[in-house]
C-alpha cells in the first residue's frame, strides 16, 4: 500500500489554518508523536494547555510499552492531570492538542474531563489510509466531533491542521 496521501483530495476534510499559539502547541504534540514511534508505540502525542498558556500535561502513546490498550496519548495526558487540583472551570478553559484526531475512547475521556477545546492534526480519514485494512489496526469510524456534539457542555473542535507535519510520524509506521 502506498502511504502517500493526496491532501488535495476532495474526499478529505479541508485543512484548518491555525494562529501562532495553536500552531506552536500542536507542533509540540506532533513532536510527542515522533517520540512515541521511536519507543515502538503508535505515533500519537498530546499536549494540554491552560487558558493562560501554561502547559498542564504532555504525553505520548504508550500502548506497546505498557500493554495497556487505553494508553493513548490523550488518555495519558489526562491521567497526568489527576491530583493537580484543577477545577472543572479551569479545565473548561484548557485546550487539548492532539497530533491525530481523537478516537471515540479519547473523545469520551475529553468529554468527561470537561476540557472545552480540542485542536488536532491528521484526521481519522487520512489515518485510515496509513492503517490499511488489517483488522488489528481498524478504528471505530466515528468522528470525535460526533462525540462532542452529544456533550451537554460545549467542546470546540478545530482540525485537521498541520496535516503534512502530523502525517510524517505515520509514514511506514502501520505495517
What does this molecule look like?
This protein has helices at residues 20-38, 63-66, 73-81, 88-92, 104-113, 124-131, 144-149, 163-168, and strands at residues 45-49, 55-60, 95-100, 117-122, 156-158. It has 175 residues and is an alpha/beta fold. Strands 2-1-3-4-5 form a five-stranded mixed sheet. β1 (45-49) and β2 (55-60) form a beta hairpin.
SSE arrangement:
Blueprint (H helix, E strand, L loop, with lengths): L19 H19 L6 E5 L5 E6 L2 H4 L6 H9 L6 H5 L2 E6 L3 H10 L3 E6 L1 H8 L12 H6 L6 E3 L4 H6 L7
Parallel strand pairs: 3-4, 4-5
Antiparallel strand pairs: 1-2, 1-3
Q: Major sheet: order of its strands?
A: 2-1-3-4-5
Chain-averaged pLDDT: 90
Spatial extent as radius of gyration: 15 Å
Helical percentage: 25-40%
Please state the overall shape, judged from the principal axes of the Cα atoms.
Answer: globular
- How far is the N terminus from the C terminus? 9 Å
- Our count of helices gives 8
Uncertain stretches: 1-10
Number of strands: 5
Secondary structural class: alpha/beta
Sheet having the most strands: 5 strands, mixed
Strand content: 5-15%
Written as H for each helix and E for each strand, in order along the chain, the element string is: HEEHHHEHEHHEH
Highlighted features:
175 residues, alpha/beta, 15% strand, disordered N terminus
Structure described in brief:
With 175 residues, this protein is of the alpha/beta class. Helices cover 38% and strands 15% of the residues.
Amino acid at each position: 500500500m502506498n502511504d502517500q496521501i493526496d491532501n488535495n483530495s476532495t474526499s478529505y476534510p479541508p485543512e484548518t489554518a491555525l494562529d501562532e499559539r495553536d500552531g506552536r502547541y500542536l507542533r509540540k504534540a506532533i513532536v510527542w508523536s515522533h517520540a512515541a514511534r521511536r519507543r515502538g508505540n503508535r505515533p500519537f502525542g498530546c499536549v494540554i494547555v491552560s487558558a493562560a498558556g501554561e502547559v498542564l500535561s504532555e504525553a505520548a502513546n504508550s500502548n506497546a510499552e505498557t500493554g495497556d490498550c487505553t494508553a493513548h496519548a490523550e488518555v495519558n495526558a489526562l491521567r497526568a492531570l489527576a491530583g493537580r487540583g484543577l477545577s472543572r472551570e479551569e479545565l473548561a478553559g484548557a485546550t487539548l492538542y492532539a497530533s491525530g484526531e481523537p478516537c471515540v475512547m479519547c473523545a469520551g475521556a475529553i468529554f468527561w474531563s470537561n476540557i472545552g477545546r480540542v485542536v488536532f492534526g491528521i484526521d481519522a480519514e487520512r489515518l485510515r489510509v496509513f492503517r490499511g485494512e488489517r483488522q488489528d489496526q481498524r478504528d471505530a469510524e466515528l468522528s470525535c466531533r460526533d462525540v462532542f456534539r452529544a456533550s451537554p457542555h460545549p467542546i470546540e473542535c478545530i482540525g485537521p491542521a498541520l496535516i503534512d507535519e502530523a502525517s510524517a510520524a505515520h509514514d511506514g509506521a502501520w505495517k
